[in-house]
Write a structure and sequence with these properties.
single chain; alpha/beta; TIM Barrel; 18% strand; globular
């Protein structure tokens, strides 16, 4: 995985919370690991179907910036993850034939970073009445927070309104540290309050980045005050090359227990270990 930043992030790299997440280090390696066993559950290109009632769609392997702790470090940035109109036709056909699937997670890469593909996929998903829930996982608002002001995203948000009229629509923001919630990000979140989208967050425990009670308390309080429900905090996946980020699970549990004593229930996320068999709540 090559180093990739946005001009917005480059302005923030004087803060260690950003530098450690994004700047490549000598020990960084490209790992072949597939820790969530996704490759063996891909019946058609771009669609991961591991659980009976839900599936995940990887719209591409592209993101606005590359996070050093990415679970899909083996894939991110590679063009072979792009899905064509024929690929979209195949995955929609698969979904239409598997009506037990009621929930879709749009992922990647970052689905918001490829808005034209996102538009094509959503237009087809909207025709599938058995799909009741859609989740969009994204880090783009933390990497290019004013992205939504461009014309192509006007089309995206107009389509999201149509989607939300018939389906439950969630956006999961991937945020690790309170420093990421800048004035520009707050502006985006205020914009999202005008949209029919429910906002959740997901984070990862990262050693020497956010693994303290004080940092996570600050993060979760800021999120809940801005209308974002902290949903998940993950134990960092055991992928070759990610060792510098992996915390001790016992330490993570102690931090969560301390947070539960001071924060409201709304502000405390679920502690999750992601495995090849699915998520385990710790």
């Amino acid at each position: 995985m090559t180093e990739k930043l946005t001009p917005y992030l480059e302005q923030l790299l004087d803060k260690q919370s950003f530098e450690k997440q994004y700047l490549a280090k000598n020990e960084d390696i490209l790992s072949p690991d597939d820790p969530l066993d996704e490759d063996s559950h891909e019946p058609v290109k771009g669609l991961i179907h591991k659980h009976k009632n839900r599936a995940l769609i990887k719209l591409s392997y592209k993101c606005a910036a590359h996070c050093r702790f990415c679970t899909r470090i083996r894939q991110i940035g590679k063009p072979e993850g792009d899905i064509s109109e024929n690929d979209i036709e195949s995955l929609i056909k698969y979904l239409s034939e598997n009506k037990a699937i009621t929930e879709l997670i749009l992922s990647g890469g970052d689905p918001l970073f490829t808005p034209k593909t996102l538009l094509l996929v959503l237009q087809q998903i909207n025709k599938l009445t058995h799909i009741k829930i859609i989740r969009i996982g994204t880090r783009l608002p933390l990497q290019i927070p004013d992205f939504y002001k461009t014309n192509i995203y006007s089309e995206v948000f107009n389509l999201l309104k149509i989607t939300a009229s018939a389906k439950a629509l969630y956006m999961l923001l991937h945020v690790e540290h309170p420093d990421e919630i800048t004035t520009q990000v707050v502006d985006f979140l205020n914009f999202m309050k005008t949209q029919p989208v429910m906002l959740l967050s997901q984070s990862v425990f990262l050693k020497n980045v956010n693994n303290t009670v004080e940092i996570l308390s600050d993060l979760f309080i800021k999120l809940i005050e801005l209308g974002v429900k902290p949903y998940y905090i993950y134990h960092c996946d055991n992928v070759n090359g990610l060792e510098p980020f992996i915390c001790d699970i016992k330490e993570e549990k102690k931090i969560l227990q301390a947070l539960k004593k001071t924060l409201s229930g709304l502000a405390v996320p679920q502690h999750i270990l992601d495995t090849s068999k699915g998520k385990i709540r710790l």
